[in-house]
Design a protein that fits this description.
Layout (H helix, E strand, L loop, with lengths): L6 H17 L10 H20 L4 H27 L5 H30 L1
Helix pairs in contact: 1-2, 1-4, 2-3, 3-4
């Protein structure tokens, strides 16, 4: 089994695609500022999941999952700012939040499973 078999990784890849679609509508002057930051953070999520899945050490595996979760918090904050600046509407933000919360829940579910598996 590889990272590509994980629903978490698959969902995070879909999320990156959605983020790219949403940020296409941002003002051009944000291309190298907010948009760039959002895209980097979004790409970080599946990248860290892939990297942690390739690790054999429990603590490293879990640490990379926490990093992926941190990237989700960063994205959420950036989209709150984007909403305040009227770059996205509240419906788009709500959709993004649902996707973020689903992935975050999957991350913490996997962390919980790993801790349980390694403690037994």
């Amino acid at each position: 089994m590889t990272h590509k078999d994980l629903d978490l990784w698959k969902d995070s890849i879909k999320f990156v695609t959605y983020v790219y679609e949403v940020t296409k509508k941002f003002p051009k002057e944000q291309l190298y500022n907010l948009v760039s930051q959002i895209k980097r953070a979004a790409i970080s999520v599946p990248s860290n999941i892939a990297e942690c899945a390739g690790r054999n050490h429990k603590n490293e595996f879990i640490q990379f999952l926490y990093i992926a979760s941190g990237s989700l918090s960063e994205i959420e904050t950036q989209f709150i700012i984007s909403t305040n600046l009227k770059y996205i509407d509240s419906n788009t933000f709500d959709n993004l939040s649902q996707k973020i919360n689903k992935i975050r829940s999957q991350i913490f579910g996997l962390i919980k499973s790993l801790k349980k598996y390694y403690s037994s």
